[in-house]
Amino acid sequence: MKIYFAGAALSEAFDEKKHARYDFAVFALSISQKENEVARAEIKMENEPGKLEHLKKYEKFFISWESQGKSELIFTGIPSRGNQTCEGYFCVFELYAAPPHLEEDVKAFLERQKKAPYWDPLFVPPEKRGKSLEVQDTLLESLYVDRKSWELKRSSFFKGSQKIDLKGNFLRESFINYVVQTPLRAVTVKLKAEWMQDQEGYVDIARVIARKFPGFQINSFSSIGIEANWPKQGQKVGRSGYEVIKSRFDRIKPNAHEPIPFSPPLKAHLGIEKYYVRRHWYDAKLYLRWQYRQKRRETLLFTLQHEFQKGASLDGEVKEISISLQNINPEPRSYRWIPKAYYREGMLVTLGAYTYVAKDDHKSSYIFEEDRAHWKLKSDSALGREERVDETFFLSPRGRQAFEHGLTLAQYHLAKSARSSEIKVTGSWEDLLSVTTDHTVRLEDPRIPGGQAQGKVVHYRIYAEGEGGRRAVEITIAHTLGIAPKTKVQLQEKYAPHFALDGYCEEDYLTKSGLLRAAPSGIAYYDFGGQCPREGLLNWRRLHSVRMVKSVAVKNGPIEQLKALVTAQGQFKEVLKDKQTQVQVQLYDLRTKPCLDHKIEVTLAGGWSAPVWG
After folding, report:
1. How many whole angstroms separate alpha carbon 477 and alpha carbon 437?
2. What does each C-alpha distance from 529 to 141, 500, 523, 604 come to in angstroms?
3. Could you tell me if 361 and 345 are in contact, meaning their C-beta atoms sit under 8 angstroms apart?
4. Which of 433, 476, 460 has the alpha carbon at shortest distance from 1?
5. From residue 58, how far is each of 53, 84, 99, 101, 296 by CA, in Å?
6. b/e burial code for range 90-128 (CB count within 10 A of at least 16 → b)
7. Which residues share a beta bridge with 247?
8. How far is it, in rounded angstroms, from Cα 70 to Cα 67?
9. Cα–Cα distance between 308 and 424 in angstroms, integer?
10. pLDDT mean over 432-452
11. Could you tell me where the DSSP H helices lie in 342-467?
């Protein structure tokens, strides 16, 4: 058997005629690779003067061998500068099957993987989101670099892209079967979201007040009290969180089409003269700006079970994962930008997904672009305005996406534990020289339960001693405890049974009605939309003036005043002085608590099982 070892330029491609040569004679060769690592080759050759200097002339090397009259490439590598030694009769030379720019390729590759449902920025601290090598445990795959072409791709935990049916063609005494871990029985995930519910708006409550007066218009026989007590612009009113931003309280000059401006005729104390008391009618506006800032803490909890193949009894543990989501609603100290408002230097406002800080004291324009010169960008958020949390996080579309990402995390940990045992065997070059960590290998042996096993290659070592010495391939495969795809029942069929009522029957009722949902990872769960919080500001978009004003009480209104005037016996001024019209308004309570807690428990419609490929 001839093993060729030829140097080449970095841009040079393998040519079986050109590179089937001995630049250096190989005394011993070992090529090995572990899952999620690059392959490496160790070449032992005779120590000759100036050999290492001669090796430095080349940027990369091809290792090939002669098979059936043709030269076949088995390894392409670049030298490892720090691992070249020459002692005694031999030199040891180390190569790596990776291009010089591998780290940049990996960064770009991982950056492309940062998308739902396998990557969620809320699960990563803001300071780490820009690092390309920051990955999340969601993909049931490992990185794989081909030792010949340097192709970078992902390789499944359970099934390689290629398959070798080795059967029993291996050394019997090399067979080792050992348990590496006990599969997890389940994974419990607790997702925590702490955020600031920040809502604000404005509402005109004057029309609600006017409904409490005759003719649905504010009026009174006394003007001093009601005009003096009408709220002024900039005034804080009612409970905390309300401010008057616009106030108008104008008397209406009556004309022929407007309400009568005087009372009916009133008798004086002698019963001879008749008097008329002026009735004042008003056109009013009262715009209130309201703001609600409440700290909220939500917890979502679920458990994903591991479904093992029939007859398997395992005492695996239940792994618990607790994750605090990051930057739900960033900058809790910021306000929403609004037009025609006064801002002080250093104040923070949020506009869309961005937070700005005021450069100086100023009054804002009608649109932000006109006001842009007064602001500088402070930070951007993982959530845009359309995704920001309003009332409850995990019931929002963004929160559901975070939950489904949590499902992929649980699935990943079950998958890692499912590869519970490993089998190591040694075979021949002819059968196993092409093996990689992207291969699935099937074995047959009476020492294996069931007589056969199949698994993904997690480690291999190809070695040869000279041209006529011993040569073999040692492989380790990860055996999985799971359920074969052909016996696996679809979740929709298994967990969405017939819905029957009075003879009516419909298949897949739970799925069609939305009570059963499927995550992108394929795991089904029962909808948890009904687990709404019971505290805090809910359905704030419905807080128009009618709902914002809980009650309006009018004391000494025009009807009560008129009754008192009729019996006043001429003491009209004294009666009106004692019976000034007063308006009492009770507003929606916007007082907050230190923190509001809400818990959601999600029931999954089935477990997850590791595939066993036939």
Report:
1. 9
2. 32, 24, 17, 14
3. yes
4. 433
5. 10, 14, 14, 17, 63
6. ebbbbbbbbbeebeeebeeebeeebeebbbbbbbbeeee
7. 286
8. 5
9. 23
10. 92
11. 368-371, 397-418, 429-432
**How many other C-beta atoms lie within 10 A of the C-beta of residue 228?**
9
Q: In terms of C-beta density within 10 A (0-12 exposed, 13-18 middle, 19 or more buried), how is residue 302 classed?
A: buried
**pLDDT in the model for residue 379:** 65
**Which residues, other chains included, contact 239 with Cβ-Cβ below 8 Å and sequence gap of 6+?**
587, 589, 590, 591
User: Residue 349's closest CA among 333, 366, 325?
Assistant: 333
Instruction: For residue 346, count other CB atoms closer than 10 A to its CB.
Output: 10
Residue 608: CB atoms within 10 Å:
23
Q: Given this model, what pLDDT does residue 511 score? A: 47
Burial class of residue 476 (count of CB atoms within 10 Å of its CB; 0-12, 13-18, 19+): buried
Alpha-carbon span 394 to 401, nearest angstrom? 8
Q: Is the pLDDT of residue 307 over 90?
A: no
Average pLDDT taken over every residue of the chain? 82
Q: Give the model confidence (pLDDT) of 510-556 as tens digits.
A: 444 458 888 888 889 999 988 988 888 877 766 776 678 889 999 99
CB contact set of 505 (below 8 Å; sequence gap of 6+): 498, 499
Amino acid (1-letter code) at residue 532: C
Q: Tell me phi and psi for residue 227, to 5 degrees.
A: -75, -40
C-beta neighbour count of 586 within 10 angstroms: 12
Question: What is the residue-wise DSSP string for 164-177?
Answer: EEEET-S-GGG-EE
Q: What is the pLDDT of residues 583-592, one digit of tens each?
A: 999 888 888 8
SS3 351: strand
DSSP 95-121: EESS-TTHHHHHHHHHHHT--TTT--G
148: left (phi over 0), alpha (psi -120 to 50) or beta: alpha
Residue where the block lists tokens 């490496």: 40
- Check: CB of residue 442 under 8 Å from CB of residue 163: yes
The predicted pLDDT at position 424 comes to: 96
Question: Would you say residue 407 has pLDDT above 90?
Answer: yes
CB 183 within 8 A of CB 314: yes
> Exposed, middle or buried: residue 333 (CB in 10 Å: 0-12, 13-18, 19+)?
exposed
Helix H, strand E, coil C: the string for 558-572 is: HHHHHHHHHCCCCCH
DSSP 466-520: TTTS-EEEEEEEEE--SB-GGGPPPHHHHHS--EEETTEEETTHHHHTTSEEE-T
Spatial separation of the C-alpha atoms in residues 466 and 442, rounded to whole Å: 30
Nearest CA among 291, 515, 537, 514 for reference residue 392: 537
Across the strands, what pairs with 476?
424, 459
Cα 465 to its chain centre, rounded Å, is: 53
Could you write out the DSSP letters of every residue in 564-594? HHHTSTT-HHHHHHHT--EEEEEEP-----S
How buried is 133 (Cβ within 10 angstroms: 0-12 exposed, 13-18 middle, 19+ buried)?
exposed
Contact (Cβ atoms closer than 8 angstroms) between residue 582 and residue 555: yes
Strands 354-358 and 375-380: antiparallel
Q: For residues 387 and 401, is the Cβ–Cβ distance under 8 A?
A: no
Q: Which two tokens stand for residue 319?
A: 């792994």
Using omega within 30 degrees of 0 as the cis cutoff, is the peptide bond preceding 126 cis?
no
**Tokens encoding 455:** 């698994």
